[in-house]
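hey m, so remember when u said the tokens were messed up on ur end? i reran from scratch. heres the input so u can diff it against urs
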Amino acid sequence: MALVKLEDFYPNYRDDSSDVGDLKNYSVYAVGDDKVGSVSDILIDEQTGKLRYFVVDTGFWVFGKKVLLPVGMATIDRNDNRIYAKTLLKEQVENLPDFNDLETVDYDYEEQVRGVYRPAAATSAKTKTAAKSKPATYDRSSYSYEQEPSLYDISDRDNQSLKLYEERLVANKQRQKTGEVAIGKRVETETARVTVPVEKERVVIERTAPTNATAVDPRNANFREGEVARVDVYEETPDIHKEAFVREEVKVKKVVESDTVTAEEQLRREELDIDTQGRPIVNQ
């Protein structure tokens, strides 16, 4: 049960044709037509949007004190811009906790406020019905304002009100996935050919007969059996193998492109029609 101030719940209430915002600055009167002070703010039930409390600045009645007045304990007189606090006494205001900061208003704080008003609310309820019942008990975990209509309901004929609604075009953005780009690698195979020139050595043996042969003394002839001449023969063989190199580098990033979308809708708004008969006095 979170409470918020009127301007936080409905920032544009001053531009609305409803008269809830006019209640601020209404004068508050207690029993005996004593002026208590004025309404400095209105607290709204954030879940339901219903009025729950008037924040009353007591002015000089109880100097420098602000207190909460449940809306069900008030009668609104729009002709005189007044709010009459039912059965409110100066002693009650003195017993009410100060309202300084909305953040301090929790269940325990509200129970202090309700504890001050409940006797008067119970008395008022008994005058409306002849049935008698045991005093109600309330649980912190299950309490709701609807359990105490005498404190929080505005049901009197003088307090009836209309809520005028209007439609507004609200533009929001939602981020949704429209697609996906997957970047991967695959291996393709191709046949490569390379030509490598190689050299091979061959031994060429040339045998020639001398043209002017001269006789050699047998004693000087060097006959050697088994004499061998050795020649190393080389050839080049191709050395072909595969090596991997970085062929290309790919960088992946995203960029944001801005666009403007224009939409049109038909909006409805409620206006107030007043049908009068006779000569009533109507203040708007």
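this time it looks ok to me. DSSP finds four helices and seven strands in the chain. if urs says something different then somethings off w ur setup not the seq
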